[in-house]
Write a structure and sequence with these properties.
Helix content is 32%, strand content 23%. The protein is built from 6 helices and 8 strands. The model has no long low-confidence stretch (mean pLDDT 95). The structure holds zinc ion. Zinc ion binds next to helix 4.
Length: 210
């Protein structure tokens, strides 16, 4: 998509009020490499687009992130945050909730050799979850919504979301990295593995943990 097409598509997305519709797996836009953000959008359009992505994420049950290709825009932009229920769970497990964060041109590398697995879902793979083994700590380079460049080290849940969302910007879905034998519907994860945990899921479904 050229720069003028990107700008036109973004303008169309913010034209009407309400949550944006989410592209589902099978749409090639989820498999494309996205354009580095380089001022292709007027700042006003960028800010409105971020607000609409935030609204879309917040109105979706338990969503923790949304990348621009998921609303049909192949641009290196994503948002993340933890809703109240998930924030409470994170605090219980000794982790920090994630405040609303904008990732512009993010990239990450593993920090150390530690790996961790957990169930992930994706708004673009509606109804399914699978365990994904990822680096536990990462170094992240990104810009924020004002163009400020940031270098951060992230760990735990936030590191997982940053990896999932950044992967979207490279045309990668979490299923590409998942333990496929862990594939479960969202209902099955809630009924069986929410309480019993990942080790029980690994044993009974027959997949490996790091
Ligand atoms: Zn996703």
């Amino acid at each position: 998509m050229g720069n003028s097409e990107l700008a036109d598509k973004a303008a169309r997305l913010i034209e009407n009020p309400g949550p944006l519709s989410i592209v589902q797996a099978g749409d090639p836009v989820l498999r494309q490499k996205t354009a580095h953000y380089d001022g292709q959008l007027d700042d006003d359009v960028l800010q409105r687009l971020i607000a609409r992505m935030r609204e879309t994420m917040e109105q979706t049950h338990n969503a923790v992130g949304l990348a621009a290709p998921q609303v049909g825009l192949p641009l290196r932009l994503a948002v993340l945050a933890t809703p109240e229920k998930i924030s409470a769970r994170l605090i219980e497990s000794g982790q920090q909730p994630v405040p609303f964060t904008v990732l512009v041109n993010p990239s990450y590398t593993a920090a150390g050799r530690g790996r961790a697995a957990n169930f992930e879902g994706c708004l673009s793979v509606s109804g399914w979850q699978a365990a994904v083994n990822r680096p536990e700590r990462i170094n992240v380079t990104r810009e924020d919504e004002t163009g400020r460049r940031l270098v951060e080290e992230q760990a735990g849940f936030v590191a997982r979301i940053v990896q999932h969302e950044s992967d979207h910007l490279d045309g990668t879905l979490y299923l590409d990295r998942a333990e496929l034998r862990s594939l479960s519907t969202t209902d099955q994860v809630a009924q069986r593995w929410g309480g019993a945990g990942l080790a029980a899921a690994a044993e009974q479904l027959g997949f490996r943990l790091p």
